[in-house]
């Protein structure tokens, strides 16, 4: 994402290459320390080839007391270093760690390496909902370089991937000198990453039904989400999950609306009444107004608008995931056929 | 003159010589310039919108290895302040900082990283003071003066016709316009070298070399002839380079270090470093007869000029004199103030005060049409000005100004097909994320008509000089060398100068010398003036060269003395030759140049105008250009997402010298107006800009701007060279209100704030589109004919701002 701000495993690379190319020798050493200038500070750059090496370097840097930054695509980290918002004495660049760039599918789950880019995800047939969310991130340049690990590290309030993963009950896989670990996404976001740990992958269940991700912003393309919403339906487990981004400091699950959906949906047919779709949106508005901590009042989109828009998006996503029995006379739900059934 | 067979003359779509380099990324912009041994400079800026400035301790910064110099206010040898119109802006803040982002010091070091570290090492004692950020409060009797020159940059009160005369149909409201930024893509940059004679040489991206030179020389305390500027590659300007930004800082550092200095801004600094478009708060009251004839227009405009004057006084004059729009109005009272606050300074931007009032008067015209039950196009046609009409300033409108033809033409353009239920992707409001629901999308169509003054106003003699030399190349081919200080900022002088020279001199090869201060001033590249003014200067110089060439030929051919004195009656230039049919003479230009080159200087002046008197009466504007836009939008009415479906433009262009270049200007002007309508706003909170990046300050992308359906009206302007008019600004004025009108038509609610935000288009418990506690009158509290005070009063509620 083309944003300023802090991240742990950043995401860019247009800018990153510009900066790095200037200081790296033509045949850069595979592993080693290279002085690198990004912004006002001079840093040492580590370029591990394996997760094991990366963790060793992180641990060593941590022990030395240096400020460390993980470089994924760099879309967040590089602007932050340039603006002085972040300073790093050691940069661990993860692009060469091929293990991190793997994605795979098990019987029940999908595992996506932290180095997988949005472009990699955008064409992934095993997770059409995630693919659609990835396709509307930033611009093509951003999608070519931004990574899953960067999205988790940056933890943007309305981050596209983060909102989807929040609805997907994703787990975050990490590795540190103490071994590997696996945390539910909310816990990972609440606790943050240990300074000597690395996000290696994210794991989520294989889709069990329609999944819709919607976002709004202030132009037709290449915009950061003002409000985003993901609705995921599991037709097997009779379950619907919904997350809203852009209202709180982090994407939030809409639990009351989810419970309502569980009871209202006719799971044998995947059908729901049009009144229920509206009620679902209303429940999301109610929950949105109570999200804490709320995003501080920003220049764009008043809190009232964000709550309202969250309800409209949720109602629409809900209707697009399910068969609505009769269109409502009015309200946010219109032409369901246009929705995104996978 | 007839350059019959010479290609690339006026009227041709001659391509820009820098086009391929710019498109392929190899063009050298000012920021790309490097010389061996140069130092890198960076600027330290105040984080506070207002603070008393105590000690500045740069000792630690100076001690850092690699730091060559640190300069502050104490190091300015000449005048401590500068400015385009009034020198009220300190080179560096000395006793007080007045806006967040104001320069406090600058550093030159061996590299950028060291310069940045040095900035961080400078200790500045700020004692923050409460900022005044509400432009409607700073003129109150008890308001604190923010500057020794006071808080009022200018006040204008135009009275025309009879006071208190009203029509039976009345429409009245307030409007707010946010702060747009020029947001040119190549940030400010200069390469400054100290010279052996004690002067400085600057390569700089600017709009007006000679104004920069004058201000530089004053602040450096050296004669102007020791300050030499050459234009470096400019990546957009739009008014944002009319003011001095980093020029003086770079020159101080170059002189302090004795080394060449590259000084440059990054994106954030660019957003903070140049003046922006004035945010406006406006009140309008329109009255009309029952059959739709305008009877009176009252307007009251408050422009927030920010901390320093920049061009505020001139911007205000434009805003107020254009506030009634291109309509015949018997009775007008148009007032306005430009005030000082602790917000970022505002100054020149494309349209220069006219876009703001156009947003107001066009919203009023639509609401008046509603009140009358009339079609908005019909209302505009009925009231549009015609040449010979008397404007609110008393100025008689000169020809041509085809206002009614423009609105008729644009209304007759074919409409796009209606929206369908199966649209997807970019065709939906909000684009690919497909949040919009086709069944909840409503279409709207809106119109706007405006006129915009051309060239400098109010008695200014903003002349332009050019030098033209006709000589032979080494292989004996005739060549024209044009030397003008006209700053090419994308407007197209690079093709126009050559087109004019080819047309006048019948010589194909034209070389444009670098724009620099070795030739006389061309004036600013602003105010839609360079094709007219510098085009006029180049033409004048070419004509003088041609006259001398013909006289030389006549003399050599022993033609009678009266032919030598007035050779054009007998001789003419035709495609590389001088031809005299009666005299039976035909000689190649190359042969005529054998005895030496011919050179001539010419200075072009436009007709004189006059200042406004105490009643706001005068003959202030040289000429006007009109434009009319029609916008078609789709709005998702639940989310307030807007997509502009189509834009049509009819514009009063005068003679077209380069159709391709014209197209570029009107498309760019339309896109910039679209940006202001929907997304472009630099937002301040308590005086601090909170979105100075392209992540947070959104510009329209190619997905936001539809193809432009453009019709040019080409009636020649009689007093301009070839009959040209400036074309870059008028469409910027009309694009914004046309889009706002279309959104209003789609959602069925009056819109009073620009940019229009999604939150302004949906039903929410509160609707904060106008600032609270404003002193501008509202529709409810001012009865007809009541005299509305211009000066802001005191509101005990206090503290509201456009943020």
From TrEMBL, chain A:
Annotated GO molecular function terms are: FAD binding; oxidoreductase activity
* FAD-binding PCMH-type domain sequence ranges: 38-209
Mind telling me which Pfam families this protein's record contains? FAD_binding_5 (PF00941)
Any idea which UniProt keywords this protein has?
FAD, Flavoprotein, Oxidoreductase
Q: Which InterPro entries match?
A: CO_DH_flav_C, CO_DH_flav_C_dom_sf, Diverse_Substr_Oxidored, FAD-bd_PCMH, FAD-bd_PCMH-like_sf, FAD-bd_PCMH_sub1, FAD-bd_PCMH_sub2, Mopterin_DH_FAD-bd
UniProt name for this protein: Aerobic-type carbon monoxide dehydrogenase, middle subunit CoxM/CutM-like protein
From TrEMBL, chain B:
Question: What Enzyme Commission number does this protein have?
Answer: 1.17.1.4
Q: Where in this protein does the record put region Disordered?
A: 1-22, 759-803
Q: Which InterPro entries match?
A: Ald_Oxase/Xan_DH_a/b (IPR000674), Ald_Oxase/Xan_DH_a/b_sf (IPR036856), Ald_Oxase/xanthine_DH-like (IPR016208), AldOxase/xan_DH_MoCoBD1 (IPR008274), AldOxase/xan_DH_MoCoBD2 (IPR046867), AldOxase/xan_DH_Mopterin-bd_sf (IPR037165), Xanthine_dehydrogenase_dsu (IPR017609)
Q: Which GO terms describe its molecular function?
A: iron ion binding; xanthine dehydrogenase activity
- Locate the Aldehyde oxidase/xanthine dehydrogenase a/b hammerhead domain: which residues? 24-130
Q: Does the keyword Oxidoreductase apply?
A: yes
* Record-linked SUPFAM superfamilies: CO dehydrogenase molybdoprotein N-domain-like, Molybdenum cofactor-binding domain
Keywords linked to the UniProt accession: Oxidoreductase
The main enzyme category here is oxidoreductase
Bias (Gly residues) ranges: 1-11
- Gene3D superfamilies, per the entry: Aldehyde oxidase/xanthine dehydrogenase, a/b hammerhead, Aldehyde oxidase/xanthine dehydrogenase, molybdopterin binding domain
Query: What protein am I looking at?
Result: Xanthine dehydrogenase, molybdenum binding subunit apoprotein
């Amino acid at each position: 994402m083309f944003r300023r701000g802090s991240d742990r495993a950043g995401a860019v690379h247009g800018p990153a290459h510009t900066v790095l190319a200037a200081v790296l020798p033509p045949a850069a050493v595979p592993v080693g320390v290279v002085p690198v200038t990004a912004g006002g500070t001079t840093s040492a750059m580590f370029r591990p080839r394996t997760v094991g090496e990366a963790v060793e370097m992180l641990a060593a840097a941590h022990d030395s007391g240096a400020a460390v930054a993980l470089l994924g695509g760099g879309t967040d980290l590089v602007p932050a270093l340039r603006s002085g918002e972040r300073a790093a004495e050691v940069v661990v660049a993860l692009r060469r760690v091929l293990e991190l760039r793997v994605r795979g599918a098990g019987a029940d789950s999908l595992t996506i390496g932290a180095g997988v880019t949005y472009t990699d995800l955008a064409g992934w047939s095993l997770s059409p909902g995630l693919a659609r969310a990835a396709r509307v991130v930033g611009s093509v340049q951003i999608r070519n370089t931004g990574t899953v690990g960067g999205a988790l590290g940056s933890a943007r309030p309305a981050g596209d991937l983060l909102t989807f993963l929040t609805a997907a009950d994703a787990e975050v896989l990490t590795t540190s000198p103490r071994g590997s670990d696996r945390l539910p996404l909310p816990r990972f976001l609440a606790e943050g990453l240990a300074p000597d740990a690395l996000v290696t992958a994210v794991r989520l269940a294989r889709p069990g039904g329609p999944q819709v991700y919607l976002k709004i912003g202030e132009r037709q393309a290449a915009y950061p989400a003002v409000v985003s919403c993901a609705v995921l339906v599991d037709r097997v487990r009779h379950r619907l999950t919904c997350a809203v981004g852009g209202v709180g400091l982090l994407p939030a699950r809409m639990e009351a609306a989810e419970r309502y959906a569980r009871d209202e949906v006719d799971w044998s047919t995947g059908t729901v009444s049009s009144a229920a779709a509206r009620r679902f949106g209303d429940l999301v508005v109610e929950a949105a107004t109570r999200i804490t901590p709320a995003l501080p009042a920003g220049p764009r989109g008043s809190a009232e608008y964000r709550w309202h828009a969250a309800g409209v998006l949720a109602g629409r996503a809900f209707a697009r995931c399910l068969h609505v029995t009769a269109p409502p006379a009015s309200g946010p739900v219109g032409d369901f056929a246009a929705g995104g059934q996978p | 003159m007839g350059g019959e067979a010479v290609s690339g003359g006026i009227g041709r779509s001659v391509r820009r010589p820098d086009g391929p380099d710019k498109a392929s990324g190899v063009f050298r912009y000012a920021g790309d310039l490097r010389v061996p041994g140069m130092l890198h400079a960076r600027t330290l800026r105040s984080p506070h919108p207002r603070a008393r400035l105590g000690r500045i301790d740069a000792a630690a910064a100076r001690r850092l290895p690699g730091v060559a110099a640190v300069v502050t206010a104490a190091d300015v040898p000449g005048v401590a302040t500068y400015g385009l119109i009034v020198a009220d802006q300190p080179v560096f803040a000395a006793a007080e900082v007045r806006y967040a982002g104001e320069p406090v010091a600058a550093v030159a070091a061996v590299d950028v990283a060291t310069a940045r570290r040095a900035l961080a090492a400078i200790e500045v004692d700020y004692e923050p003071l409460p900022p005044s950020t509400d432009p409607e409060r700073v003129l109150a009797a008890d308001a604190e003066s923010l500057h020794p020159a006071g808080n009022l940059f200018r006040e204008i009160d135009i009275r025309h016709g009879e006071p208190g005369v009203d029509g039976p149909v009345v429409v009245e409201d307030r409007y707010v316009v946010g702060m747009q930024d020029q947001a040119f893509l190549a940030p400010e940059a200069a390469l400054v070298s100290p010279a052996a004679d004690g002067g400085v040489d600057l390569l700089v991206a600017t709009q007006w070399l000679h104004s920069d030179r004058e201000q530089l020389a004053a602040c450096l305390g050296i004669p102007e002839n020791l300050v030499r500027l050459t234009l470096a590659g400019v990546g957009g300007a739009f008014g944002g380079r009319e003011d001095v930004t980093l020029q003086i800082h770079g020159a101080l550092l170059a002189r302090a270090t004795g080394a060449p200095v590259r000084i440059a801004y990054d994106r954030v600094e660019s957003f903070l470093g140049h003046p922006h478009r004035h945010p406006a708060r406006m009140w309008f009251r329109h009255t009309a007869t029952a059959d739709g004839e305008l009877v009176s227009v009252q307007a009251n405009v408050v422009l927030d000029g920010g901390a320093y004057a920049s061009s505020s006084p001139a911007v205000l004059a434009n805003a107020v004199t254009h506030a009634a729009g291109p309509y015949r109005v018997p009775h007008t009272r148009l007032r306005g103030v430009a005030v000082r606050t602790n917000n970022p300074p505002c100054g020149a931007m494309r349209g220069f005060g006219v876009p703001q009032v156009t947003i107001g008067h066009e919203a009023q015209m639509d609401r008046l049409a509603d009140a009358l039950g009339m079609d908005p196009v019909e209302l505009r046609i009925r009231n549009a000005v015609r040449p010979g009409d008397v404007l609110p300033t008393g100025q008689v409108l000169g020809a041509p100004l085809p206002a009614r033809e423009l609105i008729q033409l644009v209304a007759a353009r074919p409409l796009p097909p209606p929206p369908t239920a199966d649209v997807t992707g970019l065709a939906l409001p909000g684009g690919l994320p497909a949040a919009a629901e086709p069944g909840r999308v409503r279409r709207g169509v809106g119109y706007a008509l405006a006129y915009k003054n051309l060239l400098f106003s109010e008695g200014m003699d903003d002349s332009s000089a050019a030098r033209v030399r006709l000589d032979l190349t080494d292989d004996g081919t005739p060549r024209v060398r044009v030397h003008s200080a006209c700053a090419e900022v994308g407007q197209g002088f690079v093709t126009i100068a050559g087109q004019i020279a080819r047309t006048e001199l019948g010589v194909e090869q034209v070389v444009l010398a670098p724009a620099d201060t070795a030739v006389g001033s061309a004036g600013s590249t602003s105010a839609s003036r360079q094709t007219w003014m510098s085009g006029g200067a180049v033409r004048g110089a070419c004509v003088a060269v041609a006259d001398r060439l013909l006289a030389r030929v006549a003399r050599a051919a022993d033609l009678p003395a009266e032919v030598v004195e007035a050779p054009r009656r007998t001789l003419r230039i035709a495609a590389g030759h001088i031809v005299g049919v009666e005299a039976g003479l035909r000689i190649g230009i190359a042969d005529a140049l054998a005895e030496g080159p011919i050179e001539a200087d010419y200075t072009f002046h436009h007709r004189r105008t006059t200042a406004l008197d105490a009643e706001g009466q005068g003959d202030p504007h040289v000429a006007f250009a009109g434009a009319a836009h029609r916008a078609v939008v789709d709005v998702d009415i639940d989310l307030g997402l807007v997509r502009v479906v189509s834009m049509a433009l009819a514009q009063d262009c005068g003679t077209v010298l380069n159709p391709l270049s014209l197209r570029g200007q009107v498309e760019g002007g339309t896109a910039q107006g679209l940006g202001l309508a929907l997304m472009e706003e630099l937002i301040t909170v308590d005086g601090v800009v909170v979105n100075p990046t392209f992540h947070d300050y959104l510009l329209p992308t190619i997905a936001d701007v539809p193809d432009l359906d453009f019709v040019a009206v080409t009636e020649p302007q009689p007093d301009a060279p070839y009959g040209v008019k400036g074309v870059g600004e008028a469409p910027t004025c009309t694009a914004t209100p046309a889009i706002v009108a279309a959104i209003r038509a789609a959602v069925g609610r009056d819109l009073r704030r620009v940019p229009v935000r999604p939150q302004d288009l949906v039903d929410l418990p509160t609707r904060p589109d106008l600032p609270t506690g404003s002193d501008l009158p509202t529709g409810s509290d001012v009865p007809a004919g009541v005299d509305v005070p211009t000066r802001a009063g005191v509101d005990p509620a206090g503290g509201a701002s456009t943020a």
